[in-house]
Amino acid sequence: MGLGGGQYRLPVPLWLLLTCLQQGTGLERISYVPQLSSPTLAGTLTQSTFTLEQPRGQFSRLNISDLDTIWLVVAHSNATQNFAAPQRVEDIPVPADFSQRGYYLTLMANRLLYPGNQPGNQLRVLRVGNDTRCSPKTRGCNHPLPGPGPYRVKFLVMSDRGPVAETEWSSETRLQQAKALQAVPGPQSAGTVVIIAILSVLLAVLFTALLALLIYTCHDTCRSAPISGPEQSTCVRRYNTHHVTDPPAVGAS
């Protein structure tokens, strides 16, 4: 350290430290890339959610304490270059800011929830976009994702003094999309028309048979004379008695 040419020169280590702080390189980079959970797991990708493996044992650094919060940064794939780590908790973007900023923070945790040892065969995953009850204006809300993506995520560690460390960005993730039903072109379409025509004819024949049976039943049952008033009617079957004869008329010879 000394004076030369009227200028004050800083020691090289101190100059490098100040340069790093000015460029924002004081944030520790953790060489971990977030991964989707196993494809064999049902529901890994849906129309509004996706499932990540937990970053177990990735935050056992000396500069990370148990009190530091670990956030998941969710971003549009084309907005990762514009991401700036918030310096205060009050500056943390919420899902309602997603359309404007292109990213938000969710799934707040700490490193005690991501230990290195996994007990037994217990499944440890993180489902992004799984909370339909929280307000998108609430900090940390895990609101359903608004579209198919693509999305990229990373983990960010923050203390009460600001950001501490971050992981690498994940690869692109695209959600499932609903597919509209379309008629199958080619010979299968003609075959479908034939099947529909046959089923229509069979349905018409069945309906005609049921109608004829109903008419025949009513005609056979209701051949009777009314014996009651207009408020109530009934039917009685007529019959002839063969063993009874009429008495002879009076005065007959």
From TrEMBL:
Membrane-spanning residues: 193-216
UniProt xrefs under InterPro entries: Haem_peroxidase_sf (IPR010255), Uroplakin-3 (IPR024831)
Segment forming the signal sequence: 1-26
Molecular function as annotated in GO: heme binding; peroxidase activity
Gene Ontology cellular component annotations, sorted alphabetically: membrane
Keywords: Membrane, Signal, Transmembrane, Transmembrane helix
Gene Ontology annotations of biological process type: response to oxidative stress
Protein name, per record: Uroplakin-3b-like protein 2 isoform X4
Lineage, uppermost ranks: Eukaryota, Metazoa, Chordata, Craniata, Vertebrata
